[in-house]
Amino acid sequence: MSDENDYNDKLLKHVIYEIQRLYYIYSLKVKNIYINSDNPNDVKGISDAIYTSFLLHFRNLYYFFNDKERKEDIKISTFVTEKEEVLNYKFDFDIDHINKCLSHLTKGRLDYENSEEFNFNDMFLISINKCLQLFDYITTYNLTKYYMQEILDLKNEFTQMVNS
What we know:
Radius of gyration: 17 Å
Strand content: under 5%
């Protein structure tokens, strides 16, 4: 592997982290794993933390797959070099909703006060389908020296989820 591939492998570690966190947080939400407490404020606090964490990792992956943001950001084009192929990873989502409600304390939050809650299931499915695409690309072109087993494990788990 070249120095560039080694560098990209180090970057891939952070992409895998985001994917794993999104999956883990989604699993907590789906399994309704919350703090065991008689205090409703504890339950609400943990629920909100899970919700916020999910949105944060979804947002990070959204920007990664949509190949946007600053030059120093890790994005899909770091790994997938064919321009037409990069376009296959883009997906539509009202990211402004997350940005207003999560990332910034703005007056724009008022625009979303009466909107529906985020649909975790849809958001997760969008994400894991794009992750599966990326995993296929990485494994096909053998683009990792250090993280192949983690990618194969996630690919297997995500494939089972999508097919069930």
